Amino acid sequence: MMRKVHLISVTEPIILDLALAIREKGYDVTVSGTGISDTAFIKLSESGCACYGDGWFPERLTKDIYTVVLGANVEQNNPELVRAKELGLLIQSVPEFIYQRTRSKTRVVVAGSRGKKTIISMMVSALKQQKLAFDYALTSEVPLLPSRVHLSYESRIALVEGDEHVTSVLDQHGQLEFYRPHIAVLTNLSWSDKTGHATSEDYLGTYQAFTTSIEREGKLIYYSADSAVTRLAEEVRTDITAIPYDSHQVIEKDGQVFLSTRYGDFPVYIPDTYFLINLNAARLACRQLGVKDTDFYKALSEYSLSLQL
C-alpha cells in the first residue's frame, strides 16, 4: 500500500519539486496552496499528484495520511495545519522529511552565504561524468539538473543545499541544522537582516549548530580566508576532520588560463572572482566521495569552458 503524504504550500518551488519527486518514488501525494499557476497544475496532474484546487482544503485531510510536509511560508493559522494538528498527524518540515528519506545515504551539505549553487554545479558535473548516481535537494535551480529534488532507492549519495532560514512556523531552527551531514562544506558567513536572524550572534549560532550536527567521523570542508568560518572549524569535535580550502592556482599561456595541478594543466574559463575558491571546495568534497582529483579537473575544465558558449 502506498504511503500518503500531503504537502502544504506547493507554490514554494522546493515543495512542488518535492511533491513530484516523491510521487515518482511511489508515494500517494496530495498538495495544496494559493496562487498556484496553470503550469504547476499541469505538472501536478501529469505526475499523478492530487490537487483539489487553488486554496486550502482542510476537510480533505484524513487520519490515514502518513505525514504532512510543511512549507517554510505556511502560517500558524493555516486551516490545513490546524486540521493536521487536530488529527494528530505527523507534521514535518522539508529538511526533516529530506533527512528521513536520505538517512541511509552519504549526505553532503553545502552551506554558507555565497557560492553554494556554483559549488553544487561543479560537483554535479564531476559526479555525472563519473556516472555516480546521487539524490539531491536544492533551493537553487542548477542548469545541469531537471529539478530541485530527486530521491531514489538506489543512489548512495545525497547532495543538499543548506539554508540558514527558519525551518517552519512550528520550529524556529535554521533549515540546515536538520540534515546531519557526513560531509559539510562551509563557504563564508555574512549576516544581514535578510537571513531571518535578529542578530549576528543568532546567525552564527545557526552555523555552530550546523557544525555540531555533522555525523561522527565526518568532514568539514571550510573556507580558510573567512575568520568566522575558521573559528567554527577550530571548535569542531575531535572526531571531525576539518579540511581548509582557498583559491586554486592558475597559470596563463598564450592568452588561455589553465588550472595548475600536479596532473598537468587544464584549460579553464573563470566567470567571476570566487570561481577558483568554489572550485577547490567542490574538488575536496568530490574527493571524499571517491572522485579522483584528475577526473574532477577534467570534468571541471569541460564544465567551465561550456559557460563561455
Q: Let me know the number of strands.
A: 17
N→C terminal distance = 48 Å
Which architecture of the largest domain would the CATH scheme give at its second level? 3-Layer(aba) Sandwich
Low-confidence stretches: none
Helix-strand sequence: EHEHEEHEHEHEEEEEEHEHEEEEHH
Largest sheet: 7 strands, mixed
Describe, in plain words, how this protein is organized in 3D.
- The chain is an alpha/beta fold and 309 residues long.
- The protein folds into two domains: 86 residues, Rossmann fold; 203 residues, UDP-N-acetylmuramoyl-L-alanine:D-glutamate ligase, CATH 3.40.1190.
- 33% of the residues lie in helices and 23% in strands.
- It is built from nine helices and 17 strands.
- It has a seven-stranded mixed beta sheet, sandwiched between helices.
- Strand 4, helix 3 and strand 5 form a beta-alpha-beta unit.
- Helix 5 crosses helix 9 and helix 8 runs antiparallel to helix 9.
- The termini are far apart.
Provide a brief overview of the structure.
With 309 residues, this protein is an alpha/beta fold.
List keywords for this structure.
309 residues; alpha/beta; Rossmann fold; UDP-N-acetylmuramoyl-L-alanine:D-glutamate ligase; 2 domains; 7-stranded mixed sheet; 5-stranded parallel sheet; 9 helices; 17 strands; ligase; Mur-like_cat_sf; acid-amino acid ligase activity; MurCDEF_pg_biosynth; ATP binding
